[in-house]
Amino acid sequence: MLVLEKNYRIGLIVPSSNTTMETEIPSMLQSREKNNESFTFHSSRMRMLHVTKEELAKMDVDSDRCAVELSDARCDVIAYACLVAIMSQGSGYHCLSEARLTGVAKENGADISVISSAGALIEGIHALGAKKVAIITPYMKPLTNMVIEYIEDNEIKVTDSISLEVSDNLEVGRLDPMNLLEVVKELDISNADAVVLSACVQMPSLPAIQKVEDMIGKPVLSAATSTVYQILNHLGLQPIVPNAGKLLSGSLN
């Protein structure tokens, strides 16, 4: 029997200087395409050049406009792909943001779920059953501390962290993901249940995820792999992507 192909429209709300989520998310979803599914990707951008608390707060206001634009395209799911923009707004803000943006889309006649990379990372850690994580971020240390506080407010202990201290968002996107194989050796993972290799949607990490996981023998995830996990769950598809770490291995179901 001929099975008709289903196309899924993925909406992405991204910072204007982001170059990574529109690379890593399509790469993961296209790598799992089967005969009866395909994905297209549609973005709306919020202006942001430097990763500072002030710019992040100003940028977040723009997310409502982005949700309207993407709901015009009747996307099947929308991902707010900026982790620290959410986390810098205070504990639990991902729930408020997701609910608000889902409501904005609904007011525009589109019944679309809006997820956030911030919420997805928390859910991804919980899905792995991890209570303690070690993290790597590209941020300046004050922003990394905000991320740590946000994660710990969700009953997850951050046992160690490394801040690469790159404030220019374009430069973050140019970081070599394979360098993370060396950076992770400086991270104390002895007390961690899992490692967040990139607690940032702009810092590339996908090519290193499976390699680091195999190297350290513990689950490895990122803001991007967590976002794809949530996208697939919201679409009612099995959250499986090859070579993207335990979270997307299919072994959790």
Largest sheet: 4 strands, parallel
User: What number is the mean pLDDT?
Assistant: 92
- Low-pLDDT ranges: none
Q: Can you write the helix and strand succession as a string?
A: EHEHHEHHEHEHEHHEHEH
| Relative strand content | 15-25%
Note the topology.
Elements: E1 6-15, H1 21-31, E2 37-46, H2 53-61, H3 63-72, E3 77-80, H4 83-87, H5 93-107, E4 113-116, H6 117-127, E5 132-137, H7 141-152, E6 157-163, H8 169-173, H9 180-183, E7 194-198, H10 206-216, E8 220-222, H11 223-234
Parallel strand pairs: 1-2, 1-3, 3-4, 5-6, 5-7, 7-8
Helix pairs in contact: 1-11, 3-5, 6-11
List keywords for this structure.
single chain, 11 helices
Task: Report what the structure shows.
This protein has helices at residues 21-31, 53-61, 63-72, 83-87, 93-107, 117-127, 141-152, 169-173, 180-183, 206-216, 223-234, and strands at 6-15, 37-46, 77-80, 113-116, 132-137, 157-163, 194-198, 220-222. It is of the alpha/beta class. The protein has 11 helices and 8 strands.
Give a short summary of the structure.
The protein has 253 residues and is of the alpha/beta class.
